[in-house]
Amino acid sequence: MSYKDPILLITRSEIEDQSLLSALIRKALAQVAPSSRLYIQILYNYDSLNPLIEELITVYDTARKYNDELNPIGVYALFGDNYLNLFECCKWSAILYHSQDTLQQFQNKSHLETVQLTDLNNVYDRSYSLDDGTTLAGRKNEYHTVAVGGTFDHLHDGHKILLTASAFLARSILIVGVTGPKLLVNKKFAEYLESYEERVSSVTNFVKLVKFDLRIDIYQINDVCGPTAQINEIDALVVSLETASGGDYINNVRKEKGFKQLDICVIGVIGTNPDEDDKFKDKLSSTHLRMLEAQKRQM
């Protein structure tokens, strides 16, 4: 039996049990109908950024291990009670769960089919975790206005984690800089880039999954700094580990303009290997996804 856009319920204890988490996600993916998504709801209201990001990385990385690389099922990790705003837009057809205790924590479920996942073949499978030795500071709704930027092409797990962290920290406004076409002409497999409008839509729709009522201001990036060099009222900037040096550059530009300095929140990159000379060699990237798109079209 397969389901269109089901939602899998998991708890923090199930995330900590990597063997159980792997079995649950593997079985859930097998029950997703073609051209559908799998939503994974973590039944916990996080107050601090560090445990949230650690556990999101575990969930996304585990799902990627069991997904089809050429024809992947879209996976979207949710948390807290924002799901109460999403029944209409997500149109879940079924709730997948492991234990009755987990199911009882989920509200407004009476109109949805419930499917208990049993007969799990638990096999230990190590998950990725933040490996740079850093601890992420930051608390829920800590800043009035947060900024984040990127190309956001073929929205992947790394983008989702970056946007989730940004929305989590923002109390009122999230400013998202999306790279404009003129800065992308030299990208590898540029002919498979999504349009600016498609990328903006993907970003906006995803942020709603994280914080439905958050104001999202989109700016097209046509230079290095984008809106961070134009808007004094920004309080914090979220960047990936790979682009962390850009935060220092932006603060220097803001200092020259007489703008207040930004708090910089650095999020680890999925797929990095600290033992490699080029630690970002194996990172999850949009370039790789465009390459796969090219391969599919040539089949």
UniProtKB/TrEMBL annotation:
<dbReference type="InterPro" id="IPR014729">
    <property type="entry name" value="Rossmann-like_a/b/a_fold"/>
</dbReference>
<dbReference type="Pfam" id="PF01467">
    <property type="entry name" value="CTP_transf_like"/>
</dbReference>
<dbReference type="GO" id="GO:0015937">
    <property type="term" value="P:coenzyme A biosynthetic process"/>
</dbReference>
<dbReference type="GO" id="GO:0004140">
    <property type="term" value="F:dephospho-CoA kinase activity"/>
</dbReference>
<protein>
    <submittedName>
        <fullName>DEKNAAC101699</fullName>
    </submittedName>
</protein>
<dbReference type="InterPro" id="IPR004821">
    <property type="entry name" value="Cyt_trans-like"/>
</dbReference>
<feature type="domain" description="Cytidyltransferase-like">
    <location>
        <begin position="148"/>
        <end position="290"/>
    </location>
</feature>
